[in-house]
Amino acid sequence: MTAAARVLPMLPLLVAGLCAGAHAQLTRENEQPIESRGLADLAGGLVLDATVTVLGREFFTAYADAWRELDSAQRYSVTILEVPTARFGSSIRVQARGRTVYQSMLRPNRQAARELAPVVAGDIFNSLIRVEAEEALFRDPDLGREELQ
Questions:
Q1: What average pLDDT does this structure show over 94-119?
Q2: Topology of 40-139 in CATH?
C-alpha cells in the first residue's frame, strides 16, 4: 500500500480537524466585541468620497484639494455624502467627528460647486479648530464631552 493510499482515507478527518482548529481560533479572537467605528475614525486626515454624480464629484475634488491644504497635519477626517435629486440638484453633507457639520443643496452648476467647496472646507476646518479649543479649555464635571458640541 502506498503512502497516498494510506493518507487518502484520512483526508476528510484532517480537513475537518484543520477547519475546527481554524474555527476555534476565530472564536477565541472574536470573543471580545469589536467597537463599530467608521472608517474615517481609524486614521486622521482621510477625505472620504460618497458622491454618486458628476456634480458631487466636482464638489468632492475641489473640497479635497482645499482640505489637504488646510489640514496639512492630517488631524481630521471628513466624509462627503451626496443624495442626488432629479429636480433640484444634489444634497451634500459633510461629516466630521461622527456628526454632520455641513448640509446644503447644490444646484446643477459644476462651476458653482467648484467655487463653493473651498469656502465650505475653510469654514468647517475653522469650526473644528474652534470646537477642539473649546473642549480643551472648558471642563464641566456635569457635562459629557459630546454634550458640549
A1: 91
A2: Double Stranded RNA Binding Domain (3.30.160)
